[in-house]
Amino acid sequence: MNIQRITNGVSLKRTIDQGTEEQRKTVLSIIESVRTQGDEALKQYTETFDGVSLTSLLVSEGEKKEAYEQISDEMLMIIREAAANIRDYHERMVQQSWMVTKEDGTILGQKVTPLDAVGVYVPGGTAAYPSSVLMNVIPAQVAGVKRIVMVSPPQKDGKLPAGVLVAAHELGVKEIYKVGGAQAIAALAYGTETIQSVDKIVGPGNIYVALAKREVFGLVDIDSIAGPSEIVVLADEKARANEVAADLLSQAEHDMRASSILVTTSMTLAEAVAGEVDKQLETLPRKEIARASIADYGAIYVADTMEQAVQVVNDLAPEHLEVMTENPMELLGSIRHAGAIFLGRYSSEPVGDYFAGPNHVLPTNGTAKFSSALSVDAFIKKSSIISYSQTALKQHHSKIAAFARLEGLEAHARAVEARFK
Fold it and tell me: Which cofactor does it need (predicted)?
């Protein structure tokens, strides 16, 4: 890994993929086909892109039962324990409706209402992601969403990965469809004969999924347009090089465009980590992906002071931040921008990916400066409650009318004055 002394700050090599014009045209064509042809288009695209000819889009009860036969009892217990941890964490976020009454009879408040229907996209491809099922479905359930629809591209055998199906069934998801890509996003947004439309779509996917989510936003809500994974490790001389290297590689194996960065005050550690990364790369099953990620988007920055190192971290605003210093809690107050913060040697990033409880759907590409992790809040909406008494409006109607006339809106002014003529 390239080692650099920090002089005037650093910037993360961002990989915001807007897609090509050809990709966008393809996505628009797919969306229009699904909008007009429904299930027929979904089946055609599934055969074209996934090489699977489906008679039914809906996952059958038999497929769910078969999935359980492919999962060990030990793995099933792990999935259940992870789900319990995630549910417990998110239940602490629940907001309640509220109202206040003033002496003049005014009643003000806020009504919290869960969304009616949410679509969860679970990516396929080279890996299976039951953790994505847990992280997207559970906060929606905690929020009170009644209808949750899951879509995911089928494997070559026409089925979904066993882990994905088991995770969904454990959570009680009833509607699970074997469709992926931009066509799945279009189906969730517009609806087909089989798949009823939803109000919001969440979950990561490839560039075609991302572009499709962007196109349907406004008709439905979306969570975000996620970029490749990122990790920054903030470390002092007490950190262990082999552990830092392992954590950097845990993100590098995701994607050739994933970003793995060490920020440290120790040149000795920097050099040791660089050597460890090269050593550990050789035994990784996904070493070609990880090697490309490290070469193009990996870096080690050496700061003169911990204050300078923390400022670099805040500038980077990473998706994942590990604080591997002697006293990590001492730095927590000065860290302003990170999607998730992992404190101490035993809080390796995969702990959050799978098991601890906080959501692993996090802001990328520096958006941690203004965005948060996926949470229960993503699945609710808030309505303002306003009830003025005659006394209250009589006291304030002339002020309201004056404000309306300041903006040149006479009808607004007359609307409140009409109550007293």
Answer: Zn(2+)
